[in-house]
């Protein structure tokens, strides 16, 4: 090791140990001996950035990049320095160059995703410029990775159109596993509302539906499913039900709770033999820009043929927790369903590729867990909310639609609690914002609306309830941060609803369960139209725009008569539309109808 390398190694040790003065002196010694040394320039710039000297850091790291443009780390840290200088466009381009270098080196998704998220902080024009930089220098042949990253950066649905068209044109270029991975990833990103540009409705009702059908057909053909399934004859009663879900994650996951509850009611109240099939069809490693982390979780102890117990009931479940999607796993799932020989398959969830593999041989009823047009191949497709209809749906789906209401089972309410039990002040109105994905759903626009609301109501507070990671940092930047509480997970949500003033809904697709429980407690809901919360709450609680949103929230504080009226309407709405026992009875009726071949 020569003297420069030795000096640099010692300086780096000082730097790691926090002895920055010694490290800075040695980095400068290296530069005296070797002017323009890229590592010394870069690390000296890092010290400047850590010390709050952003302009100096940008100059030093910029020189390092000139001397060694192939280092992703140099470009990334230059991005941080430029961001600290307020040069956001230049910062985004530096992050984009780092991202491209890692992409072209075949880097795993962790660092690429982190860089993409840094770019996603900026305005649309800046994000577009960064995406153009990535696209221009992309050197891999992976069309899925390319377009998933470009969509992630821009939110432009055109990238998903391009990807889907590439698959439809040449499906054999792609493995079955990659088709499933891409489908679920796109579905989850769209569910989260991350599309910012383009005709999302046209995509989901057209190319994306064709992609889904091809996905099911290619899975069946390439994995030899046809020889493993047999055509079931129509039956005059429903005695055995296979409820196929996508993933069961435990009692903290609302879709899991709902799937178990439907199975429990079919078994205990209606006398059916029920098995939940838990294929973990979304359980894949996060390897590119498609799949949000929560969507590929599994519960390891849910494995094999077992009985699960919850809410005082026991239901049989067949679970396949392997974090991959391949032929052997799929054969095991299909064989298990065939061995059970169900009278009907309940496809739990709007997208359920495993259930749809049986759509040509057995009666399948799609029970969606959200609003919108499901791509399901089921014989019957049920509505989700009480006002749902097939209006505007493609013709081939309309005749399969049946009106339905998902219904709800209230969680235990527990003992009466006070605001103090939740760490809240006793005085003044408190608005609740509740969800499982608040880090994403409570975005900058919604937080700005919260700030404006608190400006108008100086004695009010807002309380966020739900597991979060990044939200507290975003809240801390608000003008009224001192009057915003981030409570984390709340065990007794009904008790929480009893001590707050109103439920505020961010613009999102999900949240239906939390809104239903609010209605049951007589808590007024304030929501824009569209999405699950609006479907659950109904027209009395939907406002036209952001200004009306704020006006309604203020009025619920200042007008006691309005709040009493809306509280009564909330309870009535839940009674009229929220009875899951009645929903299960209707489900069985549709199961009998599905026995008749199309």
Topology readout:
Layout: H1 3-16, H2 20-33, H3 38-50, H4 54-67, H5 72-84, H6 88-104, H7 109-119, H8 124-137, H9 143-154, H10 158-169, H11 176-191, H12 200-205, H13 207-222, E1 240-244, H14 254-269, E2 273-278, E3 304-310, E4 313-319, H15 327-340, E5 344-348, H16 353-356, E6 364-367, E7 380-382, H17 395-398, E8 401-402, E9 430-434, H18 438-441, H19 444-456, E10 461-465, H20 471-476, E11 484-488, H21 493-498, E12 502-504, H22 512-520, E13 525-528, H23 532-537, E14 542-543, H24 546-558, H25 560-577, H26 580-593
Parallel strand pairs: 1-2, 1-5, 2-4, 5-6, 6-7, 7-8, 9-10, 9-12, 10-11, 12-13, 13-14
Antiparallel strand pairs: 3-4
Q: What tags apply to this protein structure?
A:
598 residues; alpha/beta; eight-stranded mixed beta sheet; 26 helices; globular
Structural category is: alpha/beta
Terminal residue distance: 78 Å
- Look at the structure and give the mean pLDDT: 91
Helix content: 40-55%
Q: What is the strand tally?
A: 14
């Amino acid at each position: 090791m020569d003297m420069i390398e030795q000096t640099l190694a010692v300086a780096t040790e000082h730097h790691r140990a926090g002895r920055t003065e010694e490290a800075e002196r040695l980095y400068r010694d290296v530069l005296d001996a070797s002017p323009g040394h890229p590592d010394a320039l870069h690390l000296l710039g890092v010290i400047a950035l850590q010390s709050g000297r952003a302009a100096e850091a940008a100059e030093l790291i910029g020189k390092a990049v000139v001397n060694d443009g192939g280092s992703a780390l140099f470009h990334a840290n230059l991005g941080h320095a430029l961001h600290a200088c307020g040069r956001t466009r230049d910062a985004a381009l530096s992050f984009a160059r780092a991202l491209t270098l890692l992409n072209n080196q075949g880097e795993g998704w962790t660092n690429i995703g982190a860089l993409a998220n840094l770019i996603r902080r900026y305005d649309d024009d800046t994000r577009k410029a960064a995406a153009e930089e990535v696209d221009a220098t992309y050197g891999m042949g992976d069309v899925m990775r390319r377009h998933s990253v470009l969509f992630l950066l821009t939110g432009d649905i055109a990238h998903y159109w391009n990807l889907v068209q590439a698959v439809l044109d040449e499906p054999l270029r792609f493995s079955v596993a990659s088709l499933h991975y891409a489908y679920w990833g796109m579905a989850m990103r769209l569910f989260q509302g991350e599309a910012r540009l383009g005709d999302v409705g046209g995509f989901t009702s057209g190319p994306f539906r064709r992609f889904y059908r091809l996905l099911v057909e290619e899975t069946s053909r390439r994995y030899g499913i046809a020889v493993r399934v047999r055509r079931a004859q129509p039956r005059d009663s429903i005695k055995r039900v296979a409820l196929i879900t996508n993933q069961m994650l435990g009692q903290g996951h609302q879709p899991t709770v709902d799937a178990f509850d439907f199975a429990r009611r079919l078994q205990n109240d209606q006398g059916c033999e029920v098995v939940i099939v838990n294929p973990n069809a979304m359980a894949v490693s996060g390897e590119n820009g498609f799949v949000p982390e929560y969507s590929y979780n599994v519960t390891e102890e849910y494995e094999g043929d077992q009985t699960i117990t919850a809410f005082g009931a026991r239901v049989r479940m067949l679970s396949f927790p392997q974090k991959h999607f391949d032929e052997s796993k799929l054969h095991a799932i299909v064989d298990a369903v065939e061995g059970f020989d169900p009278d009907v398959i309940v496809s739990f969830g709007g997208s359920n590729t495993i259930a749809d593999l049986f759509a040509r041989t057995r009666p399948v009823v799609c029970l969606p867990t959200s609003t919108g047009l499901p791509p399901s191949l089921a014989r019957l497709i049920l509505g989700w909310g009480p006002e749902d209809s097939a209006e505007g749906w493609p013709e081939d789906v309309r005749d399969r639609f049946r009106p339905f209401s998902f219904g709800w089972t209230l969680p235990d309410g527990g003992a009466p609690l006070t605001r103090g039990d939740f760490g809240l002040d006793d005085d003044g109105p408190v608005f609740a914002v509740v969800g499982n994905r608040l880090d994403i759903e409570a975005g900058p626009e919604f937080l700005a609306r919260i700030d404006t609301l608190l400006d108008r109501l100086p004695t009010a507070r807002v309380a966020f309830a739900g597991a979060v990671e990044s939200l507290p940092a975003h809240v801390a930047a608000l003008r009224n941060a001192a009057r915003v509480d981030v409570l984390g997970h709340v065990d007794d949500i009904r008790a929480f609803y009893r001590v707050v003033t109103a439920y505020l809904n961010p613009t999102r697709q999900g949240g239906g369960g939390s809104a239903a429980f609010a209605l049951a407690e007589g808590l007024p809901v304030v929501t824009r139209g569209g999405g699950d919360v609006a479907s659950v709450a109904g027209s009395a609680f939907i406002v036209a725009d952001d200004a009306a949103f704020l006006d309604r929230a203020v009025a619920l504080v200042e007008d006691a008569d309005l709040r009493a009226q809306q509280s009564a309407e909330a309870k009535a709405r839940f009674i009229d539309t929220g009875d899951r026992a009645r929903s299960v009875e209707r489900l069985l009726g549709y199961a009998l109808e599905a026995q008749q071949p199309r």
